[in-house]
Specification:
Blueprint lengths: L5 H22 L2 H9 L3 H25 L5 H17 L3 H16 L5 H29 L1 H4 L1 H23 L14 H7 L2 H28 L6 H14 L11 H12 L4 H28 L6
Helix pairs in contact: 1-12, 2-13, 3-4, 3-10, 4-5, 4-13, 5-6, 6-8, 6-9, 6-10, 6-11, 10-11, 11-12, 12-13
């Protein structure tokens, strides 16, 4: 079967995002969006930008913890490159895939490809686990606001992910994979270092906490009155939705999921859409930083 040409795939996903955004715009009063945006205080916007880049700085520290051969500058560079491609390509995982490819290519000269692949994979798995942990904590503190169905869904998802994480980290390599055992050597070197994994998880929690703070600061500035526990759940659920590789830069997916969740909590859908637009602007700013890093650096200089 012939694969779909990248250009057609891009147009299709751009169209899906535009259609989803159009549906949201048809249901949300645009004058309310403008009012919410007009409430933004410059100090709050500046704080959100600072928190956004601080979060990615923590993410770079997490990457360097698993790949200590990277300099601080290179860890930051590859982290922002992931933001660039996560924004320009469908789904956040696309950015991580590009980061893994670029890091692997850089490591190939040193013959350390397997360690790089293992580190990037574990970095993403632990980051998702940190997100689910904060989502579960937020849901536990503010369960009544979301209802039994959401509580059950998130609880089952967290339980399934914990089981998967245990299997990935601790389970022995299956017999039928033994002929590829050498490829698992680097993976095992990392998973058998509980101290490193714990520090990576803690940094992942800090990263997610800063991301939640970005939502909370911008949302509060535009009139959204939610507890930090509710914001943790909102960020967790929206982030999971954004993993779906169906639109460019999360357009449509972010807007629809954020508006729906905020409305579920009895808050203004117009302010929710305004928040979504501000988050898109932050991602574009991060992508610009990633583009600058990509054009001015060298993958091989690790």
């Amino acid at each position: 079967m012939r694969s779909i040409p990248p250009s057609i795939s891009f147009v299709a996903k751009f169209s899906i995002g535009a259609a989803l955004l159009a549906l949201v715009l048809m249901r949300v009063p645009l004058d309310g969006v403008l009012v919410a945006l007009s409430r933004l205080q410059p100090a709050d916007v500046a704080l959100a930008v600072l928190l956004y880049f601080a979060a990615h700085g923590v993410n770079a520290m997490k990457l360097r913890l698993l790949l200590p051969q990277l300099s601080v500058r290179q860890a930051l560079r590859f982290t922002m490159i992931a933001v660039l491609y996560g924004t320009a390509l469908p789904g956040q995982l696309a950015g991580d895939a590009v980061k893994a490819f670029r890091l692997t290519r850089a490591a190939s000269r040193a013959g350390d490809v397997s360690a790089t692949v293992a580190a990037v994979t574990i970095d993403k798995v632990l980051g998702l686990f940190a997100l689910l942990v904060l989502t579960a904590v937020g849901l536990g503190l503010d369960a009544a606001a979301f209802g039994a169905a959401v509580v059950k869904t998130v609880s089952l998802g967290l339980a399934a992910f914990i089981i998967l994480l245990v299997l990935v980290v601790a389970a022995p390599v299956p017999t039928f994979l033994q002929k590829w055992a050498a490829k698992f050597t680097a993976w095992r070197r990392l998973t058998l270092r509980p101290g490193t994994l714990l520090r990576s998880l803690l940094l992942g929690i800090v990263f997610q906490g800063l991301s939640i703070a970005v939502f909370a600061v911008l949302g509060a500035s535009m009139g959204l009155e939610l507890s930090i526990a509710s914001w943790a759940v909102v960020v967790g659920l929206v982030s999971v939705v954004l993993l779906l590789p169906v639109t460019i830069a999360g357009v449509g997916l972010r807007d629809g999921s954020l508006v729906g969740l905020i409305a579920l909590l009895g808050q203004s859908s117009s302010a929710a859409l305004a928040l979504s637009l501000m988050l898109l602007a932050l991602n574009i700013l991060g992508a610009g930083a990633g583009l600058l890093a990509d054009l001015t650096g060298n993958d091989q200089d690790t």
